[in-house]
């Protein structure tokens, strides 16, 4: 099961479906290859619960070399029946941050840190892992290499690849959940056939749009499509395309810790562009629309509520925001200027009077 992504509701759903599929197909174990910068607390806890309740052993494997199980990934790895890492990987740094990566107000931070620390202690107790080193990933933002994690007992072994991992865990005894309580299972993994479980088409689409840059572009193009439909009613395609793009953009935004005020500012920008076309002014509304679009793009993934632990630095790339702002604002202002110029021409006025 390839979990090389930010931890969000899509990844949560994918993990649950993949483990269900493994159970239904009679798999001996489920190996989750993880590489993540972190993610949402709600999704993290759901995924930890999914692993705890799995009736078959779940091995979380931080791989390939160069990967990390940072922040939320630390919780998921520690929750596994067997935790493993590839050489050249790291784990930890699970201190809570605000959505934009900045420090949190001290009072709020104390509450969040204590709750998060208690969560990882509970995981450690459930799996018999050292509480101190794992708690330090939250309280002190500690991070460990694969060898350091093995020496501390955070993980169970280091393996270069999945086949070697399965050979190494062969004969290992773990406790798994069952309807009558926990039961002991001895892993028999030598020579197993490996089946890769990928994202379904729907999950692939959701995973694609649950990217800050893609979501921003979809909302921007959606607003532009609706704008063109209002400028030239009856063209149909821009309006239909715009609505679809907006819906997909909002779905992407909903699967990330985004700020709906940012989306509202982007849509307000197009409203101001339309107003500019219908009001004889000096471009003030157009300039306000341009400012609204840029500010909306900046704060759309800013988070002003309760932060999530170890949330990665997610924002719209400058290389996406600046060109998008230039193109969208340029097109809108040129269209508005053309409309105003046409309204002021003698031919247009005469046609209107007739």
Choose one word for the global shape: elongated
Question: How does the major sheet shape up?
Answer: 5 strands, parallel
Report the span from N to C terminus.
69 Å
Q: Which blocks of ≥5 consecutive residues have pLDDT under 50?
A: 98-104, 305-310
Structural class: alpha/beta
**Order of strands across the widest beta sheet?**
1-2-3-5-8
Topology:
Blueprint: E1 2-3, H1 9-24, E2 30-34, H2 41-52, E3 58-62, E4 68-70, H3 72-79, E5 82-85, E6 90-92, H4 106-127, H5 131-139, E7 143-145, H6 146-152, E8 157-158, H7 162-169, E9 173-176, E10 183-186, H8 201-209, H9 212-231, H10 237-254, H11 260-278, H12 284-299, H13 318-344, H14 346-353
Parallel strand pairs: 1-2, 2-3, 3-5, 4-6, 5-8
Antiparallel strand pairs: 6-7, 9-10
Question: Any key phrases for this structure?
Answer:
alpha/beta; elongated; about 350 residues; 3-stranded mixed sheet; 5-stranded parallel sheet
Describe the structure.
56% of the residues lie in helices and 10% in strands. With 354 residues, it is of the alpha/beta class. Helix 8 crosses helix 10.
Quick recap of the structure?
This protein has 354 residues and is α/β, with parallel strands linked by helices. It has helices at 9-24, 41-52, 72-79, 106-127, 131-139, 146-152, 162-169, 201-209, 212-231, 237-254, 260-278, 284-299, 318-344, 346-353, and strands at 2-3, 30-34, 58-62, 68-70, 82-85, 90-92, 143-145, 157-158, 173-176, 183-186. 46% of the residues are buried.
């Amino acid at each position: 099961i390839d979990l090389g992504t930010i931890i969000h509701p899509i990844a949560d759903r994918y993990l649950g479906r993949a483990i269900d599929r493994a159970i239904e197909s009679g798999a001996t174990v489920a190996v989750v290859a993880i590489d993540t910068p972190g993610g949402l607390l709600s999704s993290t806890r759901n995924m930890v619960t999914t692993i705890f309740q799995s009736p078959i052993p779940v091995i979380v494997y931080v791989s390939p070399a160069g990967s990390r199980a940072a922040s939320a990934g630390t919780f998921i790895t520690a929750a596994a029946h067997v935790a493993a890492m590839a050489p050249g990987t790291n784990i930890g740094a699970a201190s809570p941050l605000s959505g934009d990566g900045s420090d949190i107000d001290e009072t709020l931070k104390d509450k969040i840190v204590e709750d998060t620390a208690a969560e990882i202690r509970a995981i450690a107790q459930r799996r018999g892992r050292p509480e101190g080193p794992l708690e330090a990933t939250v309280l002190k933002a500690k991070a460990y290499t694969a060898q350091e994690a093995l020496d501390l007992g955070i993980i169970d072994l280091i393996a270069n690849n999945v086949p070697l991992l399965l050979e190494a865990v062969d004969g290992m005894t773990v406790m798994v959940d069952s309807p009558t309580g926990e039961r002991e299972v001895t892993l028999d993994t030598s020579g197993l056939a490996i089946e890769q479980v990928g994202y379904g088409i729907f999950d692939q689409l959701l995973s694609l749009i649950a990217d800050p840059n893609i979501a921003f572009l979809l909302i921007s193009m959606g607003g532009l499509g609706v704008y063109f439909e209002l400028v030239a009613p009856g063209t149909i395609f821009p309006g239909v395309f715009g609505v679809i793009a907006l819906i997909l953009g909002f779905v992407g935004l909903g699967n990330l810790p985004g700020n709906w005020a940012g989306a509202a500012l982007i849509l307000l920008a197009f409203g101001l562009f339309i107003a500019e076309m219908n009001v004889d002014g000096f471009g003030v509304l157009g300039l306000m629309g341009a400012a609204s679009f840029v500010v909306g793009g900046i704060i759309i993934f800013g988070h002003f509520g309760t932060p999530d632990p170890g949330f990665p630095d997610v924002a719209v790339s400058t290389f996406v925001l600046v060109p998008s702002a230039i193109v969208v604002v340029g097109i809108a202002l040129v269209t508005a200027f053309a409309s105003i110029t046409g309204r002021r021409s003698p031919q247009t006025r005469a046609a209107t009077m007739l």
